Amino acid sequence: MFKVTIDNRTIEVAPGTTILNAARMIGPEVAPPAMCYYSKLKESGGKCRTCLVEVSKGSEKDPRPMPKLVASCRTTVMDGMEVKNFTSPKVIDARKGIVEMLLTNHPLDCPVCDQAGECHLQDLSYEHGTEGTRYEFKRHTFELEDLGPYIQLHMTRCILCYRCVFAANQLTGKREHGVLERGDHAEISTFLNKSLESEFIGNVIDVCPVGALTDKTFRFKSRVWFTKPMDAHRDCPTCSGKARIWMRGEEVFRVTARKDQWGEVEDWICNDCRFHKKETKDWVIDGPSMVARNSVISQGHYAGKVGTTKPQVYVDKVLGRQPKMLMDIHSISDVHR
Ligand code: SF4
Ligand code: FES
User: Fold this and answer.
1) Which ligand is located closest to the Cα atom of residue 102?
2) Could you tell me the pTM of the whole model?
3) What single-letter DSSP state applies at residue 46?
4) 3-class DSSP state for residue 200?
5) CA of 175 to the centre of ligand 1 (A)
6) What was the pLDDT predicted at 37?
7) Residue 45 Cα to ligand 2 middle (Å)
8) Å from CA of 38 to ligand 2 middle
9) Element counts in the chain: helices (H) and strands (E)
10) Sheet containing 70-71, strands listed edge to edge, beginning at the edge strand earlier in sequence
């Protein structure tokens, strides 16, 4: 076993473990953010640079620090290695730069984006970004492309993390889409506009860290934080049938795979469960989902958190009425319905 210290916390891990996974074993307080690495997808990682860390001591044998920050999802630990993540000013500064770079072309359309509230880039920019933008130019635009009946592609929001490409390759057994062109021309595309028809292709929506791939059956129906996530299962001949259903009252607004504390899918689900089972009678409800990620979705969902009470809501008392929507955001946005 190799001993590695991350942000002053020491753990022993098997040789071959990456710094990122060693940090995840310690816990979220030292784990670097990851926008492209996905433990369930082979070859993922190494694209986005959000997981950069400082190696202040290479190993017991060679204690020299590594000269540059390294991608923790692609760097394996050495015995006696010492790593700084949140304790390194260099890392914090570099991450600010990464957020700024990821947002160079990404539109700031969170108010109309279905991913808002569960977007890893939104979380990342709140946690590591700066308040303003220095960007003065027109952002990159693309021709609208149809990805079939279930999935909506907003290429302007894509950060080219390749997760959806790996998911499509590895889950469907055949290559359905990929990244065409390179550099600032790079874009996700189906080959010859072939629609994505595989039974498991809906999972690309769940692996996308931003709102570039969204569920057409849920688009613009509700903000995620107004829905209540419940773990549910059904007897499905195609997949495990273990899913998360997002309810408002008795209505099922959308179905997704269940995700773990790193925001990664636990069990891939099929298109039938995801897109066609939208009634409560289709599901056996196991109970409220534990939302472990530090997300707006967990606000107001106190189930399972021992010793917490729901805070008082004062907005209506201050306003003297229930808050209501003051404008139709679509009228001032160029996002297509
Ligand atoms: S569409 Fe989403 S998952 Fe695919 S490369 Fe872009 S950001 Fe990543
Ligand atoms: S998570 Fe490591 S480079 Fe993207």
Assistant:
1) 1
2) 0.83
3) S
4) coil
5) 15
6) 97
7) 5
8) 9
9) 7, 13
10) 9-13, 2-6, 81-84, 52-57, 70-71
Q: Quick one: which of 131, 118, 129 has its CA closest to 92?
A: 129
Based on C-alpha coordinates, what's the Rg of the chain? 21
pLDDT of the residue at 192: 42
Q: How far apart are CA 24 and CA 252, in angstroms?
A: 33
* Chain position carrying tokens 């805070």: 311
| 120 in contact with ligand 1, CB cutoff 6 A | no
On the 0-12 / 13-18 / 19+ scale of CB atoms within 10 A, 66 is middle
CB 302 within 8 Å of CB 309:
yes
- Extract the residue ranges of the chain whose pLDDT is less than 70: 174-176, 191-196, 292-295, 298-311, 322-337
Torsional class of 107: left (φ above 0), alpha (ψ -120 to 50), beta (otherwise):
beta
> d(Cα 271, Cα 324) in Å, to the nearest integer?
35
Residue 285 has which token pair?
Answer: 């409800």
Alpha carbon distance 202, 274 (integer Å): 7
- End-to-end Cα, the chain, rounded Å: 54
* Structure-token match 């999935």, residue found: 151
CA distance 252 to 249: 8
